[in-house]
Amino acid sequence: MKSFRFWLGLLALFPAPAWAGPTIPGPPRDATLGWSGFGQSGSVPWSIVVLLTVLTLLPAMLLCMTPFVRLLVVFHFLRQALGTQTAPTNQTLLGLALVLTFFLMQPVGVAIQQTSIAPFQQGKIDAWQAVEAGSVPLKSFMLRFVRPKDESLFVELGRVSRPARPEDLPFRVVMPAYILSELKAGFQIGAVLFLPFLVIDMVVASITTSVGMMQLPPVVISTPLKLLLFVMVDGWNLLIGSLMRSFV
Length: 248
Known about the structure:
Blueprint: H1 2-11, H2 44-65, H3 68-82, H4 90-121, H5 127-143, H6 148-157, H7 171-210, H8 218-232, H9 235-245
């Protein structure tokens, strides 16, 4: 590979022969490319850097600023309560959580498109103004589900003066308070989900112990009963409906 690069560089020192035809001049080194996604006059290297940075931070943004955390926590609690170790699979639960997150965040995305992305593409505002304008709908969404207790905790830890309105709080306070509130809400829903299935486990365990069925684990009998109960009451419809209404 090194020898190939050496000969390639050596050939570049000699002019092209006449039979090779005219050379097509390339763009000047200081030329810029107007990408619609990055404004009208952004340079290509900086556009690539911004794009790669956004793609790198996208998973963290998805976890910290959307309902993805609450949904995924509830789904994992449901699987543990049913007693099925790998059904549904992790990929299925992640896909379902992503689809529901997209459904819930679509109005916020439309607001960001109208207030931030569209003016930036038209050249009316610069990149920093676009970030500030796009953060307003997202912060409003998160503040709807932030508990005052979590908000006060991170205001105190960050040594931030409490503003007159919650909308004036910085993102470094809103983001951790939001994800902490979402974790608590997910654990609360998961605890409620466990109760009916825990009753079934206790009843089956007491019956098998009283009749002397020590060789047969109670989970072998309770798991089909829990699945049958979940299917009979249309559990997925009830669960998804309750989760969606909790964000309205």
